[in-house]
Amino acid sequence: MRNSDIIEMVNDLLDEQGEVTIGNLTFYPSDILRKCDPTAYRITVNEYIDNMIQDLEYDLERTDDEDEQVDLKEQIAHLEDSYI
Asked: What does the angle CA 2 – CA 71 – CA 65 come to, to the nearest 5 degrees?
């Protein structure tokens, strides 16, 4: 999974309630957060990555399949490199 895929998933979550209208202008919540508070946006993305890693670590603890363990460890390592 690429960083752009992760960011797209976070944006989809932020935008699932729909656009925000201010006067005659419409904005996506993800754009508002990213432009108005980039630190909060970065934290949101990184927390999303943390949750994905926790889910994979949970799966890793419960599998005995060596191939699956290798795959899960690779996914975790990739996600750890995806923090923004």
From this structure: 160
